[in-house]
Design a protein that fits this description.
146 residues, mainly beta, Thiol Ester Dehydrase, Chain A, 6-stranded antiparallel β-sheet, 6 strands, globular
């Protein structure tokens, strides 16, 4: 049996500096999440400062949005976790200043790992990007459904 090192992180989010969801990060995306049943939802309209190729949202920003959504779907269920691995599929480029609709959900959970999925769509439902992830559970408040 392999003993994995214990991961310890500062889980005090009152500093609100997260690049993805921190309201006090001056250059962050300031994502705000809500739960709709078991599905996390948010919207985002990336500014031109988040472009890669001229006029297009950088793929790294799209990846960050997916990661934030998958992490926060667990967090809003009382589970603090950190990403262990992600698989991302960028389906098509998207223009800056276009509203993106993001959803995420947990697909599997055990004591040490959460598996989740997320996608980014346009208003008409066109899928721009999708992802799956595995996350290490850091702490759990007991608010989940198990």
């Amino acid at each position: 049996m392999v003993n994995l090192p214990k991961v310890s992180i500062d889980t005090d989010l009152h500093k609100n500096q997260c690049f993805g969801c921190g309201p006090h990060n001056p250059i962050g995306l300031k994502l705000s999440f809500r739960m709709d049943g078991d599905t996390l939802r948010t919207e985002c309209t990336p500014d031109p400062v988040y472009q890669g190729w001229p006029g297009l949202v950088h793929g790294g920003i799209l990846s960050l949005i997916l990661d934030e959504a998958m992490n926060n779907v667990a967090y809003l269920k009382g589970i603090t976790c950190i990403t262990a691995s992600m698989n991302i599929r960028l389906r098509q480029p998207v223009k800056v200043e276009e509203t993106l609709y993001i959803t995420a959900g947990i697909t599997k959970k055990n004591r040490k790992l959460i598996e989740s999925k997320a996608k980014i769509c346009l208003k008409d439902g066109t899928v721009i990007a999708e992802s799956t992830s595995k996350q290490f559970v850091i702490e759990e408040s007991g608010n989940d459904d198990e």
